[in-house]
Amino acid sequence: MGRGIVHRKSDDTRRGSRLWKFEQVHDALKHNKGTDVEGRKLDLNELTADLSWSSDSFSKMTNLRFLQIGVWWSLNGSNVCFPNGLETLPGELKYLEWHRCCLESLSLPTQLVELHMRRSKLKKLWDGDQNLVNLEQIDLSYSKDLIEMPDLSKAEKLKDVYLIGCKSLRQLRVHSKSLLALILQGCSSLQELDLNDCRELESLQELSPPLEWLDLYDCWKLKHLSKLPPSLWNLRLNNCRELESLPELPPSLKKLDLNGCWKLKHLPKLPLSLRNLPLNNCRELKSLPVLPPSLEELHLNDCWKLVHLPKLPLSLRNLPLNNCRELESLPVLPSSLEELHLNDCWKLVHLPMLPPSLRKLSLNNCRELKSIPELPPSFNGLDLNNCWNLKHLPKILPSLGSLYLNTCKELEFLPELPPFLKQLHLICCWKLKHLPKLPPYLGSLHLKNCRELESLPELPPSLKQLHLNDCWKLKHLPMLPPSLCNFHLNNYKELESRPKLPPSFNGLKLNDFWKLKHLPKLPPSLSSLRLYNCTELESLPELPPSLELLDLNHCWKLKHLPKFPPSLLNLRLNNCRELESLPKLPPSFKLLDLNHCWKLKHLPKLPSSLWKVCLNNCRELESLPELLPSLTQLDLTDCWKHKHLPKLPPSLGSLRLYNCRELESLPQLPPSLEQLDLNDCWKLKHLPMLPPFLQNFFLNNCRELKSLSELPPSLWNLRLNNCRELESLPKLPPSLEKLDLNDCWKLKHLPMLPPSLRNFGLNNCRELECLPELPPSLWNLRLINWRELKSLLELPPSLEELDLNDCWKLKHLSMLPPSLRNFRLNNCRELKSLPELPPSLEELDLNDCWKLKHLPMLPPSLRNFRLNNYRELESLPQLPPSLWNLRLNNCRELESLPELPPSLEKLDLNDCWKLQHLPQLPPSLESLRLNNCRELESLLELPPFLEELHFNDCWKLKHLPKLPPSLSNFYLNNCIELESLPELPPSLRELVLNDCWQLKHLPKLPPSLWNLHLNNCRELESLLELPPSL
Keyword Phosphoprotein: yes or no (predicted)? Predict the structure, then answer.
């Protein structure tokens, strides 16, 4: 019937939209006809001899979408030949089936969806790069001459690949996030198989020799592997998150990469040839098999459940064990070991003897570690951060060049320091009262927040840097050595006197010296002087001749400055409120930065070398002096009394004017200007002609501005905010990449958007009636407060970010583009459903879409998921395995949660009134916040690595489970029924209890606690001993 309809529509059989009779098809191709043809089928079974067609046989078939050529029942039939090759296939072709194709290579159109070329003579499909973004299926089975497949990494929709019996194929690369099936039986020459980023692939058939290389990186859904060929020597399984086990490994295997195999619990026997074994982020791995003797590197970072290690091979050189939180002990370390990394091994209490070859040891955040064995002689650096229980250090070797100790809270003293130590950094060593004798070659000494430190020993003559911050009890300083170049003193409340500054001194920084009124004589070598928050400082001494930088912040009482030396290059004055004038600026001066100098009325003559002037909140300044040709940047902010600008120099590249309320006009803009930023210039009505090289143009709250002049062709960023009288825009330049229009109330129409546009935002343009066609290159679209918008046109395929806010009447969304990564919907009140979410989506933010009752399936790549004020939502779909942040606000009807993914790190539940129970919390969870979950009565076991726990307005919560040892912040607000607390972990730093009415007793407070808030705990009868760190 269909063929009859097509036949009746056309008198000329060669011009019908579909051709299937052999004579019609042959005649059209032979004479290069058929411009109206959309589909053709050619059955070669009717041939008695080979046909020869010209290379341009398809050139006029511009509408052809379906092409089928082949022999379906005879293997010896005649064929179609192209003696001069085939130039091209029609650009609109979507389906191509060509059995026994005689061509050796073929260029495919970008619109192609399915390719079927069984038993072809193809040796390779095409040369170079082809962007086949729509291709979904390939079948080249029994193409025995096929040697090489092209790189299919851009075929992101590819689902099925059939290559049965391609005996000559040696290499295959497919990087498609949509791939579901790959059939390779009989590919007896295949040596390399790369399936990187095939996220939907769940299984792989048994592979055969001579395969040597197998890459399955980012195959997220792959659960099982079949038997591996004995020829395999390289196997990559990074990020195969669902893979639970491995088959027997071939003895030839030399490289095995298993990073990010979250669910892998056990390993098979390892081959003896293996040299490197990366197992980072194998979260379920509890133990290891016997390690091969040739192993040189073993990586076990983030193996959370690993408790013990087997015997380590003698050849091992590098052992990273960072964040193995359950690891309690180590075996004997091999003599060849050079690097050992044990950061965040929370339960590790002791270390074995360190081998003599060890050069590097990292022990950051080993909270239970109490001691360190003797250090080997080759050791040259020690880094200890957050080793809270470490009280003593071993003897430090003479070869040690640097020592860093951060938050070793229990450390009371240091051993003798080695003579060649050059750097000593001590941060938050709260109990440290004294330092040993400092070595003669020490060049840098940093002491921060050493609260009990009362004095310093004699400073060595080699010292060049001395930084002393928040050492509250330090009252006196020793004599500063003559070599000292850089000296920082911050927050020294008890310091009674300042030592004499050495003559070689070149940098001085003083912070929070509230009572300092005068400075001593400054050394002649000083090049940098920074004074912050010296609120009582009234004057400065004579400035030295070498000074290049003068930076004065919050020196409120400073009224006058001394004469500037000729060497001065940069002057920054911030919040010097009483300063009335400046001295003459030196001729070499380059930067002038004046902020909140309220009483400054005039500026001196500007030097010819000046290139940047920033004036912020100089309220009394009425005018500027002449601007010289060297100036490239001029910033004026909150200069309220400024009415006119002087002539702008020809070299000016950037002009920013913020809140210059009295400014009525601008002078001619120089041709070199690249950035023009005009904000809150209320009285500005007209703009001069814009210069030809302008690239960035920002207008904000210029309320009187009614029109814009012609935009320059070089412009690539245009932002118009709160230009309420602006009714139209000029033609947009072809180079424009960013366009933001906010609060342009009277704007009714937009010009055509240029094809270069990548970023487009519309906010509260109340009179705008419709959107112009969106360019295909657009990747960021923001539509905010467009209340009359009811539907969206087709979205461009390249779009990666989509924000729709306050589109009250929007009821439906079209299909979302496959490239979309971030999708935000806020206050779209009439929206009832969402389309299918693209597989590339990583962030989904849905707020105040009141009528949305159901959600589509969440994509596997989703990492951030936020739901706010979904009053009708009763259930959630299955959560994807990659999710690490889940936030649910005001989902009042939600009674339960689905299973939480193993990757989840943050969980926030706010105003979920009917939620009574939580599912099992994943071990990866680091932050849990429960606010106003009124029906929640109890919790299951808390995850072992939780660091932050908040319970607010959980009215029925009576008891808490055991708190994890990693917890550092614990908040309980308005938990009215809570009667007691469990034991507090030793890591706790902050405890806040507000309105816990029934709470009578507190457990013992840990020694690490530094913040304790107790408000309205009405029944609390007593407090135990307060910790010293509070």
Answer: no
**One-letter amino acid for residue 780 of the chain:** N
Record the tokens describing residue 313, joined without a space. Answer: 């091979």
Can you tell me which residue has the tokens 């180079």?
Answer: 735
Tell me the pLDDT band of 26, cut-offs 50, 70 and 90. low
Task: Answer whether 67's CB lies under 8 Å from 94's CB.
Answer: no
The Cα–Cα gap between 53 and 107 comes to 17
Measured distance CA(529)–CA(520) in Å, rounded: 13
Q: How far is CA 122 from the centre of its chain?
A: 43
Burial of 1029 (0-12, 13-18, 19+ CB in 10 A): middle
With 0-12 / 13-18 / 19 or more C-beta atoms within 10 angstroms meaning exposed / middle / buried, residue 734 is exposed
Calpha distance 993→760 (Å, rounded): 47
Which residues are CB-neighbours of 1006 under 8 A, at least 6 positions away? 984, 985, 986, 987, 988, 1027
Amino acid present at 438: L
Nearest to 13 by CA among 1, 26, 2: 26
SS3 call for 44: helix
CA terminus-to-terminus distance, the chain: 88
Express each pLDDT in 114-160 by its tens digit. Answer: 999 988 888 887 766 677 888 888 998 888 888 888 777 777 788 88
- CA-to-CA distance for 447 and 513, rounded, in angstroms? 17
pLDDT at 494 over 60: no
Q: In this structure, which long-range contacts are made by residues 687-691, counting pairs with CB atoms below 8 Å and at least 24 apart in sequence?
A: 690/715
Residue 23 near residue 51 (C-beta atoms within 8 A) = no
Task: Write the DSSP assignment of 867-880 as a string of letters.
Answer: EE--TT-----PPP
List the Cα angle 671/673/678 in 5-degree steps: 130
- Per-residue pLDDT tens digits for 891-924: 777 777 888 988 899 999 887 777 777 888 888 8
Q: What is the largest CA-CA distance in the chain?
A: 110
Residue 13's pLDDT band (boundaries 50, 70, 90)?
A: very low
CA dist., res. 858 & res. 867, Å (int):
13
Query: Cis ω on the peptide bond leading into residue 210 (within 30° of 0)?
Result: yes
Answer yes or no: are the C-beta atoms of 530 and 513 closer than 8 Å: no
Side chain identity at 786, as an amino acid letter?
A: W
> What is the torsion angle, in degrees rounded to the nearest 10, for the CA atoms of residue 718, residue 724, residue 727 and residue 729?
0
Whether the CB-CB separation of 1016 and 997 falls below 8 Å is answered with yes
Indicate the pTM of the whole model: 0.60
With pLDDT > 70 as the criterion, what percentage of the chain qualifies?
91
Distances (CA, A) of 873 to 849, 868, 881: 10, 11, 22
Q: How far apart are CA 365 and CA 324, in angstroms?
A: 11
Q: Which residue's structure tokens are 């293997």?
A: 75
Residues contacting residue 75 through CB under 8 Å, at least 6 positions apart: none
The candidate with the shortest Cα–Cα distance to 867, out of 903, 831, 843, 902, is 843
Instruction: For residue 70, give the 3-state DSSP assignment.
Output: strand
CB 806, CB 788: distance < 8 Å: no
* Both tokens assigned to 833: 């459903």
Q: Which residues have CB under 8 Å from 12's CB, separation 6+?
A: none
The pair of three-digit structure tokens given for residue 399, joined into one six-digit string? 């070869």
Nearest to 993, CA basis, from 1006, 979, 1007, 965 = 979
Structural contact between residues 316 and 295, judged by C-beta atoms closer than 8 angstroms:
yes
State which H helix or E strand residue 24 sits in. Answer: helix 22-30
